[in-house]
Each structure stands twice: as structure tokens, then as C-alpha cells.
Amino acid sequence: MITDQALAPAIRVQGIEKSFDELHVLRGVDFDVAAGSIFALLGSNGAGKTTLIRILSTLLKADAGSATVHGVDVAAKPGDVRESISLTGQFAAVDEVLTGRENLVLIARLRHLKNPGAIADDLLARFSLTEAGGRRAATYSGGMRRRLDIAMSLIGSPSIIFLDEPTTGLDPQARIEVWQTVKGLAQGGTTVLLTTQDLDEAEHLADRIAILHQGTIIQNGTLAELKRLLPAAKVEYVEKQPSLEEVFLALVGETDSTSAASAEGESR
Amino acid sequence: MTTHVLGDTGVLTGRSLTHIVRSPDTIITTTITPIALMLLFVYVLGGAIDTGSDESYVDYMLPGILLITIASGVAYTAYRLFLDLQGGIFDRFQSMPIARSSVLWAHVLTSMVANLVSVAIVIGVALIMGFRTGASVAVWLAVAGILVLFTLALTWLAVIAGLSAKTVDGASAFSYPLIFLPFISSAFVPTDSMPAPVAWFAENQPVTSIVNTIRALFAGQPVGSDIWIALAWLVGILVVAYGFAIAIYRRKLN
């Protein structure tokens, strides 16, 4: 299937087009994502990021062009593609009636894994949700819910993870937790394709950044490459003021994330 | 593509049954309206209704009440399916290597279980109110078979509503006409007491033949041709609704 795993991109998108009635959302999108890297798709609301993620995760068919995941075409062999991917959608797709642990067990069962209970307990511990694991997901805070959502996506160790705006609506601490998780995934060899409209997020996380604008990729490069597109930096002397984020994080302190998270959950 | 259809359906059915166990109000609200109607008709209106037979009124109207129970119960099926679509968990399931049909079948099987529990509760209340039948086990099984078929047909209608609704209210609104249909049938009063055009409608809509069949089975009378008309309606509705539901589901997946 693939002759040279090391050289072949994990994801290859070529000339993808998609319209909804008269609305041309994607007008020929091309990019490659190297295996084990974090690739950020940057774009404003309505740029077509979610449409592209839905095509790559086999939920939507493109009108034209092709997309392959590990060399397998997403339109021709969606069943094979689903074996190697995992989708974390824009809205945390957790079952609110079930407990956190039951959500994880459900996904482990659907992936036909042995010892779903042990897998669930392991992930609860990894995502600081052990204490909250027995509570219904409806009682979780936004950050806990997103952690659970990402934990569900990791079950079965998919080699490619799609994250559609993973930190939208999260508070700064929860956002940093998600960032750490994403970095950890890439260090473990997982390929991460994430969409964001947060420039800061792309800058912090991504090995490569592609800018999706009006249905095409208008720039694609590393952060350094993108920065070179503008005139060289001028040297100015600016008083170093702490950002509000730094102030906020210093004030609320480096509390243990588990107790902070469960306290946050209980207050709801 | 996958050989796990049964296993996946089982796991997903377990999930939605957990929803029902954790919010038993969906069963309670399903049974409250039929029970209230039964109390109203038996203790308030029933005395003035001449059914033209000597059976007790609760015996006469129970079949119609059971159909109303199922018609209001399937609204929750559409509701649960709609919430899965809205919440993104449907997308999660569809992007996983599981049998795609299992997502729908789990909702259908859950609907069957929930509605049969509701029906059992309503029959229990009817027994307290004096409903009696000399029906044998075989006859009970025949009644159960008709009710299962009715639930299945309406559940696939609910799947259409759940898949195509734009709002939560829209998802369950389809059931209102279904709940109303038994009132314009032989369920509560004999059709020959109605004005001619209404009587014509009542006699030729599916509920009347189904009600007449169940009533005759409970009373130990011959079912006549009604059972074949009822089965034709039920199988017809089931096949058409299933076809439409699957077509909408396929289109949604592309």
C-alpha cells in the first residue's frame, strides 16, 4: 500500500472542492501533513475548516479532488480510514447522561478492545478525571468535558487525530491543559490536524500552519517561514508588561489540576 | 466492511436504554396521558357512550388507549435521535470503525423496549380499573405481535422525524396527529354514530382495523377480515417508513 512510510505524508489533500448549493466553501484545497507532526489549519469563522475536517473524517464527501490518510482514499475506502483516525468535533461529543467512565467504556467497546474498564480507568487518570469519573458528564465544566472528549478520541490509539477548534470556549487554564495534551500526543508519534481561529494557539502548538481563506490555502509553512513573509522585525524598546493571561494564571495559582477541576465541577 | 453489526448494535442499545433508566420520566410522561384519558373516558364520559355491545367500557376502549400510548412514546425516539445528531456524538460514532446501521437500530430497539414497558404499565392500570379478558397465552401473543408491529412502524416514522427535524420541537411534533388519529376511529365510539364523511374516514383509516382486531382478540370473538386489513396497513407503513428513513439516513451520510 505504502512503499515508504517515512516519506509518505500521513494526510494528503489535493484539489478538494465542496459546495453547499450556491455556496462554494472549498475551492481547491491542497496540503500535506507529515506523520507525527502537529498541523494547524488557521482560518476565520466560515472559512471551511469544519467542512474540510468532516471530509477527512469520512462524514462528508468532497465534490472534487482527493484526500488520503496513510495512502488510503477517504472517499473510496472510508471504512479503512476510520480504523486509523479519530475525530474530536467542535462541540464536545460526550454522552451527558452517562458518567465520564461510562463514556470511555462505551467507546472502548465500540472499538472492540479488550478490558474496556481498564482502558477507561487509565485514561481517567491520565486526564485528571479519576475523581469525576463516576459523575454524569452533564455535571462537568467545559474544560473537564473537553478533556473527556479528547480522552474518548484516544481510545484505540488512532495514528491520526482531527481536532476541530479544541479550545474554543475554554478558560485559559483548560486551554493550556489541552495544549499540553496535544503536544504529548505528537511526542508519542500521533499525527494531529487541528483547526483554530486562535493565532496564539497555532503559534504555540503547530509544526506547520496553513491559512485557509476563501476556500483555498493561501499560505502554508512553519511559523518562522510565515513570519518571514513580512518585513524583518524592527528593534524597539518596549517596557515588558505582564499580559492579562499571565496575571490571571499567577493569581489563580498553580493549583493541583484534579482538585481544581473537581471543585469547578461541583460548583456548577 | 465490518462483522460487528450485532455487537455494536448491542453496545449502543445498552447506551440508550441507560438513558431511559436514568430518566424514567420519559416512560412516566408517555403513560400519563393515556392513563388520564382512560380515567376520563371510563369514569366521566363512558357512562353516556353506547358501544352497542354488553362488554364493559374499559374493555372497549383499551385497544385505542394502547395505540395512543405507543404514538406518544415514539415521540421520545425522534427526540433522542435528534439530540444525538445535534450533540455531535452521532458524528463521533460515524467517524469510528463501527457498523453504520447499528446507530439507527440501537434507537429502534430502544424504542421497542421503552414502548412495551409503557404498554405494560397502561395494561396494569386498566386491570386495576376492571379490564378483564379471557385471552389465552396464544391470544396475548397475537395482541403483542400486533402492538410490536405497530411500534416498529411508528418508530421508523419517528426515525424520519428525528433525522430531518430542525428543532427539538419539530422532532416530536410528528406524533401529535398520530395521537389524535384513534379519536376519529372505532377506538372510543362506534363509527356508525358519526356523520357519514367522518364515519367513512374512520372506517378506512388504519387505527380502526387495528383496534377492532385487538378488541376482538381480547373478547374472544372472531377477528374476521379486520386482522388482514390491519396487517396490510402495518406492513405497508413499516415498509414505506423504513425505506424513507434509510434513504434520508444515507443522504445524511454523504
From TrEMBL, chain A:
Boundaries of every ABC transporter domain copy: 11-239
GO terms assigned for molecular function: ATP binding; ATP hydrolysis activity
InterPro entries tied to this protein: AAA+_ATPase, ABC_transporter-like_ATP-bd, ABC_transporter-like_CS, ABC_transporter_ATP-binding, P-loop_NTPase
Stored PROSITE patterns: ABC_TRANSPORTER_1 (PS00211), ABC_TRANSPORTER_2 (PS50893)
ATP-binding listed as a keyword: yes
GO cellular component: plasma membrane
Membrane topology classification: Peripheral membrane protein
Compartments in which it is found: Cell membrane
UniProt entry tagged with the keyword ATP-binding: yes
Main location class: membrane
Keywords: Antibiotic resistance, ATP-binding, Nucleotide-binding, Transport
Gene Ontology BP annotations: response to antibiotic
Family of the protein in this entry: Belongs to the ABC transporter superfamily.
The name this protein goes by in its record: ATP-binding cassette domain-containing protein
Annotated organism of origin: Agromyces tardus
UniProtKB/TrEMBL annotation, chain B:
UniProt keyword GTP-binding, yes or no: no
Assigned protein family: Belongs to the ABC-2 integral membrane protein family.
Keyword annotations from UniProtKB, A to Z: Antibiotic resistance, Cell membrane, Membrane, Transmembrane, Transmembrane helix, Transport
Transmembrane segments annotated in the record for this chain: 27-49, 61-82, 103-131, 137-161, 227-249
Cellular component terms per the entry's GO annotation: ATP-binding cassette (ABC) transporter complex
Annotated compartments: Cell membrane; Membrane
PANTHER family to which the protein is assigned, alphabetical: NODULATION PROTEIN J
Gene Ontology biological process: response to antibiotic
Domain of life according to the entry: Bacteria
UniProt GO MF annotations: ABC-type transporter activity
Protein name: Transport permease protein
Major location category of this protein: membrane
ABC transmembrane type-2 domain residues: 25-252
PROSITE patterns in UniProt: ABC_TM2 (PS51012)
InterPro entries: ABC2_TM (IPR013525), ABC2_TM_bact-type (IPR047817), ABC_2_transport (IPR000412), Nod_factor_ABC_transporter (IPR051784)
Keyword Membrane among record annotations: yes
Membrane disposition: Multi-pass membrane protein
